[in-house]
């Protein structure tokens, strides 16, 4: 019993479909890579902005305080929380192998009573 060769139309369709799937795979991969690059750029911008805010907080902590005020902004605690947020963003950009997450919470309380140290 002799098998007949498959029709050319079938090969043409297979070639067209496989070419289409290959092309879609390339464009989808490029779109995912572009989204990742865009996200990385956004996180980099956030880190630079946090660096600027932290620098202002640290400079403000060194300024002489007004002794007449009852409440003062706790710049050191604010700077520590900003550093923690920045570290989380940097860890996101360069993840290491899976490890337990640090569950320490941010303070969120930046008001102090009395004289500034």
From TrEMBL:
Domain of life assignment: Bacteria
Signal in keyword set: yes
Keywords: Signal
Signal sequence range: 1-33
Any Pfam family hit: Plasmid_RAQPRD
Positions of the UniProt region annotated as Disordered: 94-117
Protein name: RAQPRD family integrative conjugative element protein
Organism expressing this protein natively: Ectopseudomonas oleovorans
């Amino acid at each position: 019993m002799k098998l007949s060769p498959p029709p050319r139309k079938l090969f043409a369709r297979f070639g067209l479909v496989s070419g289409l799937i290959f092309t879609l795979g390339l464009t989808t991969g490029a779109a995912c890579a572009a989204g990742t690059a865009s996200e990385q750029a956004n996180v980099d911008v956030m880190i630079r902005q946090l660096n600027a805010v932290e620098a202002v907080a640290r400079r403000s902590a060194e300024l002489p305080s007004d002794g007449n005020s009852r409440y003062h902004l706790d710049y050191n605690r604010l700077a520590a929380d900003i550093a923690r947020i920045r570290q989380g963003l940097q860890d996101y950009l360069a993840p290491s192998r899976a490890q337990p997450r640090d569950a320490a919470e941010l303070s969120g309380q930046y008001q102090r009573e009395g004289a500034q140290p």
